[in-house]
Amino acid sequence: MLSWHKLSRISVISFFILYLLFPSGLSTTDAWYNAASIRYCGEIFRSHHLLYNPLGLLLSWFPAKAGIDILSFMKGVNATFAFLSLIIIQKILYTFKISEKQVVLITCLTGFSFSILRYATENETYIIPLFFALLASLNYAKFFHYKTVRFVLHAGIFATIAVLFHQMYVFWWMGLLGGFFIEKKKKYVFRYLLISLIGPVVYLFVAGIYGEGKNWSSILNFILGDFRENASLGLTFKGIVLSGISLIRSFIQVHGYIYNMIRANILLLIPGVASFLLVLFALRKLPAIKRRNISGTFGTVHIIIILLQFTFALLSYGNAEFMVMIPVLIFLLVPLYISDLEDFLSWIIVAMALWNISYGVIPLHSAGQGPEQFLCDMAKSGKNAVIIASDDQLLKSMLYYQTGEKNMNCILRSPAAMKRRGEDQHKLEADIGSALDNGVGVFTNCLDKEAISRQSIIEGNENQEFFSEYESILIKTWTMSTGIKSIYKVEIRRH
């Protein structure tokens, strides 16, 4: 019979294989754009995730020469760092003398959480900084046990590297800083801050070379680039609701396409029902759980990090990307505060695995981007066509990756996107009218009834209402695991 120690190794290897075998077939705008930037040495240094593309450029140089697709390769890179992150989680738990069985269970909970499954199989920028942040926490855990200064320095280095890979990890960095303040020894705080100066130095160096201008204003604009240009913060009722949904979704996949899948094939209800019954069975094991606290300041620090990250996500209108680390941290802390939880967690793991693989990994892997590629092929063909895209940035990023051309003027923003950005939809009406008057075809993928998602909640029926003023002809339909997608040709305006 296999020992739990061997099972801990087998578990991380199994997750690595899972992540590699089921890359997302529904790549995001950022995934395409990052891959294009690497492929064409375009926007290598992006301030919000400064080192992601440079690392991708370095790692993919030889594979690209060998003809390996960069987008696919970078998904493999993220799978690798997710695998390494699970190993670091195990090492953190071992520093607290957690039993081998509990280590395996926490590894599986983390590996099957949807936030990890989602980004370990995609070319997004959230897994690599998580790895370095966990390395920082590992060194903080060692500091907690041994009070050795070198662990302070190591924690500072890795936390700063995490921030350089994604700025949102500044909250993790701040949480660890708070931990050293709790120790009430200035030398720890000073050395953590001193070693962390490598972050600002790197930013200043890159901004000085690649930023627009050399004055402090231009450097600051570079550092705050994405946030200054695209992001906004606020607390609204809709944002609170979306934050709750995104928090749940960081543990299990929650999306409107699940309903579409079940409606298309009633047998796909079975994994959901089975998962629900497994959770009910797990709840019967709750009375056996006993409370404890072996975490000390380590637990306090990481609870602070969870609260900081969730608050930022809440103020960012429930952005799920800012909650990637929350399941990881919660699962990491569970055995430090609760004992005798093996039976309960075992059933939860099976339920989570069944749900997230059935409704998350497999559908996203098999979905494909046929409708978007159809529109991209139309744009590349050189035919006279105007394309009004439900996600114009996605199409432009795909075209950038496939052609090297960054902006194609034939791709126009959807009515809903225009309204969200405060733009006048009369301009879109004028563009459609001008195209039709000149015999140019107008095509759109904005008329589908969208599955319930964060985007559909934000946009509502704006696209359908806008195009209800026009005659439209169905051109092509795709039946996919995530729903039915269609392309329409826009004709004359109704009177």
How is this structure best described in words?
With 495 residues, the chain is of the alpha/beta class. It has two domains: 4-196 and 232-366, no CATH class; 370-493, no CATH class. The protein is built from 25 helices and seven strands. It has helices at 4-21, 29-39, 52-65, 70-95, 100-112, 114-120, 127-146, 149-165, 170-182, 186-196, 198-210, 216-223, 225-230, 237-251, 257-264, 269-283, 297-315, 325-337, 342-367, 370-380, 392-403, 415-420, 425-437, 454-459, 462-467, and strands at residues 290-291, 338-339, 385-389, 411-413, 441-444, 470-480, 483-493. Strand 3 (385-389), helix 21 (392-403) and strand 4 form a beta-alpha-beta unit. The relative contact order is 0.11.
In short:
This protein is an alpha/beta fold and 495 residues long. It is built from 25 helices and seven strands.
List keywords for this structure.
single chain; 495 residues; alpha/beta; 5-stranded mixed β-sheet; two-stranded antiparallel ribbon; 25 helices; 7 strands
Describe the secondary structure blueprint for this structure:
Elements: H1 4-21, H2 29-39, H3 52-65, H4 70-95, H5 100-112, H6 114-120, H7 127-146, H8 149-165, H9 170-182, H10 186-196, H11 198-210, H12 216-223, H13 225-230, H14 237-251, H15 257-264, H16 269-283, E1 290-291, H17 297-315, H18 325-337, E2 338-339, H19 342-367, H20 370-380, E3 385-389, H21 392-403, E4 411-413, H22 415-420, H23 425-437, E5 441-444, H24 454-459, H25 462-467, E6 470-480, E7 483-493
Parallel strand pairs: 3-4, 3-5
Antiparallel strand pairs: 1-2, 5-7, 6-7
Helix pairs in contact: 1-4, 1-5, 2-3, 2-21, 3-4, 4-5, 4-7, 5-18, 5-19, 7-8, 8-9, 8-10, 8-11, 9-17, 11-12, 14-17, 16-19, 17-18, 20-21
